[in-house]
Design a protein that fits this description.
The chain is an all-alpha fold and 331 residues long. The protein is built from 14 helices and two strands, in the order αααααααααααββααα. Bound molecules: benzoyl coenzyme A.
């Protein structure tokens, strides 16, 4: 597993040698009482690094996640669909910004995090390495990918780290709107012509298994879960959230009139959950390693956009310096 994840917590940040060791007992008591850890509080270095790793990966996912859907903005089938999709993709940029801001409260610099993404030292969600081949893929992403994201992120609203938990509250409200717009796209297609229905079914077939992989490796192969759960960062295990997503999605697929590409899905009265087929986790590990269908394209596009936007950052810095000088001279 080591080789797959290459884990050094995904950050170059070193502990500050002058900082006093945190009071572990006080920290444990705060967590036991369901208190929130705030940026001013002492925290164990490993807790801080785990949060930086997860929040940065989450922020990068929101930003890279703009690409597959952004691909359809110029080809949306109507002005209404185009306006909605532009607003959705813009929301994802906003989520990335809240999350980078939350990570910065832990003493890292956003530019460093972006640099670590660009140099392959930090990850982003596997799901964004799949192509968007048809308009129905925009519906499947909204319904399944945003649906999986909400399932994972609603519990993060109760994460023990205050700034991350608060960012999640707003993100989840927006994601639930995104999920409904995806459902509505697929509903329209599945009640349209036979060709439109077939296009919707094909998109669901391609996005179903990668959406289940978004929740991460199985619990017995998830090196970070136990500690993150003990710290109140994660509230549920990867497999529990995956099951919750399946239970929510199967009845929705029936309402859509679309099938799911898994013949083993069936209600299990004894467990009170839907059973589902075995997930091919070798695919997840390959995508995480960089071997998914679109990894190279996504990163090349991201680096190019960053380089081409350098003048905007320079201009914003010059403007901020000019305003600071003007404020100083008035004072
Ligand atoms: N893809 O020990 P584990 C969105 C990595 S964007 C890639 O279980 P953990 C949206 C994992 O990082 C929503 N890597 O880890 C945007 C770890 O490697 P490192 C994105 C994955 O952290 C635009 C290793 O595998 N959501 O909604 O306890 C349009 C071992 O895993 C993946 C978030 O980021 C994966 N799928 O649990 C539409 C949610 N899975 O870091 C929608 C926040 C695992 O040790 N993150 N890895 O080198 C989390 O909840 C957790 O980080 C995870 C993984 C459940 C993803």
């Amino acid at each position: 597993m080591e080789g797959v994840y290459g884990n050094d917590f995904g950050t170059d940040q070193q502990p500050d040698p002058d900082r006093a060791a945190p009071d572990e007992a006080a920290f444990a008591a705060l967590l036991a009482g369901e208190g929130r850890v705030e940026p001013r509080d002492d925290m164990p270095e490993a807790y801080r690094k785990t949060l930086i790793r997860q929040i940065a990966q989450h922020a990068h996912s929101e930003i890279i996640g703009m690409q597959p859907e952004g691909n359809w903005i110029s080809r949306a089938p109507s002005l209404r669909r185009k306006a909605i999709l532009m607003a959705k993709v813009q929301d994802e940029a906003g989520h990335g910004l809240y999350l980078y801001a939350a990570a910065e409260t832990l003493g890292v610099d956003r530019a460093d995090l972006v640099d670590q993404l660009h140099s392959g030292r930090q990850k982003y969600s596997s799901i964004f390495n799949y192509p968007t081949l048809t308009w129905a893929d925009v519906g499947a992403i909204g319904w399944l990918v945003d649906g999986a994201a909400i399932t994972n992120q609603v519990p993060l609203c109760r994460c023990s780290y205050g700034p991350y938990a608060r960012a999640m509250v707003r993100v989840c409200k927006e994601e639930s709107f995104h999920q409904r717009q995806g459902f509505e796209i697929l509903y329209t297609l599945s009640h349209g012509t036979p060709e439109q229905k077939a296009m919707a079914q094909d998109a669901v077939n391609r996005y179903w298994w990668p959406s289940l992989m978004m929740f991460g490796p199985p619990d017995d192969d998830s090196p970070n879960s136990a500690r993150s759960m003990a710290w109140g960062i994660k509230r549920f295990s990867n497999d529990d959230l995956r099951q919750r997503f399946v239970d929510m999605t199967v009845p929705q697929s029936e309402a859509l009139g679309l099938g799911l590409p898994d013949p083993e899905i069936r209600w299990n009265d004894e467990r009170g959950h839907y059973d589902y087929g075995e997930i091919d986790f070798t695919e997840l590990f390959e995508v995480i390693k960089g071997n998914g269908p679109c990894n190279a394209e996504r990163m090349a596009h991201k680096r190019r956009a960053y380089d081409e936007g350098a003048w905007v950052r320079t201009a914003a810095e010059a403007y901020a310096a000019k305003r600071a000088r003007a404020t100083e001279s008035v004072a």
